[in-house]
Amino acid sequence: MEKIKPKKKWGQHFLTDANIAKKIVSTLSFDTYNKVLEIGPGRGFLTEFLFKKKESLYLIEIDNDSCVLLKKKFPSLRSKIFNEDFLKIDLKIIFQKFNFAVIGNFPYNISSQIVFKIIEHKKNIPFFCGMFQKEVAKRICENPGSKSYGILSVICSIFYKRKYLFNVSPKVFVPVPKVESGVISLIRKENFIPDCDEKLLFQIIKLGFQQRRKKLRNSLKKFDLPKVILEDSIFDLRPEFLSGDKFINLTKKIENARI
Questions:
Q1: Is 60 helix (H, G, I), strand (E, B) or coil?
Q2: What is the pLDDT of residues 152-198, one digit of tens each?
Q3: With contact defined as beta carbons under 8 Å apart, do 44 and 4 qualify?
Q4: 99 and 126 both lie in a single domain
Q5: Residues 17, 240: Cα–Cα separation, whole Å
Q6: Angle (deg, nearest 10), helices 111-120 and 151-159
Q7: Spatial separation of the C-alpha atoms in residues 147 and 241, rounded to whole Å
Q8: Where does a domain end: 130, 160, 188?
Q9: How many CA atoms lie less than 13 Å away from 180 in the CB half-sphere?
Q10: Are residues 116 and 155 in the same domain?
């Protein structure tokens, strides 16, 4: 079967180490999740190990040449292979209201955007495992107080239990990337719906980290909060010191002040 060359415009770096592929696949409990989605399968190296475990497998691949190859390698999956941009495709058309797990070796140039889309569909995605640039993987799993703690860290921590699994050397890819990689997993929390206005919560987190060196009292000025509310000690903090739970509490305080 013909091989395809990795394309720079799609940020393709093809995994070549079977042991790494097996480790990634082993994170997934196939008895728990009826449907599995792989994002960016490329040549189908990781797909081979997934397919051995799960026939209810769906693939989304933006590269047309890769899709042609995948349909030849996995003919029984032809109707489940989508030649689409994951960031633009409507996942509800594929999965309706069903839950599905997500796994993949993600293009580093859009990896953060992929995570935000996972969060958008969190009600239907109880499990996520992915390979990222190591710096991004670490950031997602970071805790309050760190300089790399940011928007992704907070939002993921609110909805999912985060775990940094292992490092991956650049040498196991073709072409060899200039950075190290890291694999993480996200397991959705049982009580993952916050008891506050979620849209406002996201807005507060975003505003806070846009001016991360400022205290929240200053970065959240646009809410025009009463002085009595601003006297709360939480407004003396910078966003990097607030956990997901504290951001939820902050959101509730602001909600109540606006009633």
A1: strand
A2: 999 999 999 999 999 999 999 999 999 999 999 999 999 899 999 99
A3: no
A4: yes
A5: 37
A6: 30
A7: 10
A8: 188
A9: 10
A10: yes
Query: Rounded distance, CA 78 to CA 68, Å?
Result: 10
Residue 181 structure tokens: 């990689």
Tokens of 92: 């509800």
The model's pTM is: 0.92
Residues 11 and 29: their CA atoms lie apart, in Å, by: 29
- CA dist 91 and 117 (Å) reads 10
Q: Domain range spanning residue 248?
A: 198-258
Bond into 194 cis (ω within 30): no
- Match 């805790």 to its residue by tokens: 143
The CA-to-CA distance between both ends of the chain, in Å, stands at 64
- Collapsing DSSP to helix, strand or coil, 23 comes out as helix
d(CA 114, CA 130): 10
Tokens of 40: 């960016």
Tell me how many domains the chain contains. 2
Residue count of the chain, please give it.
259
